[in-house]
Task: inverse folding
């Protein structure tokens, strides 16, 4: 695990249900007077954690150059830096002059089939807070690669997350166009701060800022993990609880300190791994060293794949090959950090709306956006 201020992408498999059994009375050894532990699950979880740490240390030893905190290809490699910048701009960029079709416009040519319904959400009533300070001169206009947008202004107030609290800046959304926000009260953003950005400091960084005098989380590690199903979700701060995962945690080096960018060395598509077609056909092993810069972004709904050959790095156009091979029931397999993850058909195909949640990249983007289809 990486220390405070360092980056770690936590990839978790599955959830385990909390036990509802009544704990047995602890046994006291008559010779030693020591109390026997009854929490067998905790013992195994602790051992699994120790094993994971050893595995991570071995991985670090064999990838010392990549794991070094100052080895960030998105900063240090001139060519790769441009690629990272292109996916960062695509994931979230200030494009104030760009015109969008909004969900409630009367034209039949709508961006989304379903309208955004503000009435389904609970709204932050600024007049009910005696500590809220608006910063209306600091506005934002965020546009995402899937066509959704958010607009609003900044403010400062006391923010509570569980037992942690701090005075923190945040964004007040005044306009959006995506039905994904129907019934949603807001966005808990855990993005990384960007140099020169006028966006509010991400709340986890604000809470753990040594100079923030109004926080009780200054010593909290800047780590988080989240779990989500169709009906429930949980965020864990400071890392992750080993007792809540049913498989081994896998760590992979971040390639940037401003976005959660990792290198995707393979993306295949098919019914099974053996018949799947490679969509990222790199021309050389050198180009495959880092892979295609890929932002792991839960704020992007779909999987966004290259719509060109990434300036000659690929011998194919991934989107064209996907479109040619499109078929219901097929799955994706994404390889990140020497480990392959399946994106099953039911995650990338939206049955209720009969839509494919896979999109071609916008012009100039040289990588992938890995959105909710992966996290689901």
Result:
């Amino acid at each position: 695990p990486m220390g405070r201020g360092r980056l770690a992408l936590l990839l978790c498999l599955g959830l385990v249900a909390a036990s509802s059994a009544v704990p047995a009375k602890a046994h006291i050894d008559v010779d030693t007077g020591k109390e026997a532990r009854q929490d067998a699950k905790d013992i195994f979880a602790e051992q699994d954690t120790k094993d994971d740490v050893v595995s991570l240390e071995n991985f670090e030893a064999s990838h010392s150059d990549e794991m070094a905190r100052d080895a960030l290809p998105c900063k240090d490699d001139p060519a790769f830096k441009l690629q990272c910048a292109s996916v960062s701009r695509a994931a979230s960029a200030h494009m104030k002059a760009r015109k969008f079709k909004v969900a409630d416009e009367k034209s039949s040519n709508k961006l989304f089939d379903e309208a955004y319904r503000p009435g389904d959400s609970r709204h932050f009533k600024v007049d009910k807070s005696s500590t809220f300070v608006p910063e209306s001169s600091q506005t934002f206009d965020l546009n995402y690669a899937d066509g959704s947008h958010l607009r609003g202004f900044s403010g400062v107030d006391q923010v509570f997350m569980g037992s942690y609290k701090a005075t923190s800046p945040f964004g007040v959304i005044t306009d959006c166009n995506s039905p994904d926000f129907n019934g949603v009260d807001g966005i808990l953003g855990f993005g990384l701060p960007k140099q020169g950005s006028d966006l509010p400091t991400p709340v986890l960084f604000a809470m753990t800022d040594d100079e923030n005098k109004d926080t009780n989380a200054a010593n909290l590690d800047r780590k988080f993990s989240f779990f989500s199903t169709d009906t429930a979700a949980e965020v864990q701060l400071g890392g992750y609880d080993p007792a809540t995962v049913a498989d081994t945690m896998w760590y992979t080096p971040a390639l940037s300190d401003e976005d959660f960018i990792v290198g995707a060395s393979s993306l295949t598509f098919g019914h099974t791994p053996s018949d799947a077609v490679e969509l990222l056909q790199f021309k050389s092993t050198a180009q495959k060293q880092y892979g295609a810069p890929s932002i792991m972004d839960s704020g992007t709904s779909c999987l966004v794949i290259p719509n060109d050959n990434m300036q000659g790095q690929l011998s194919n156009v991934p989107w064209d090959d996907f479109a040619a091979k499109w078929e219901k029931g097929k799955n994706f397999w994404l390889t990140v950090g020497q480990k392959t993850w399946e994106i099953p058909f039911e995650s990338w195909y939206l049955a209720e709306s009969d839509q494919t949640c896979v999109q071609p990249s916008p012009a100039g983007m040289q990588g992938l956006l890995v959105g909710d289809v992966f996290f689901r």
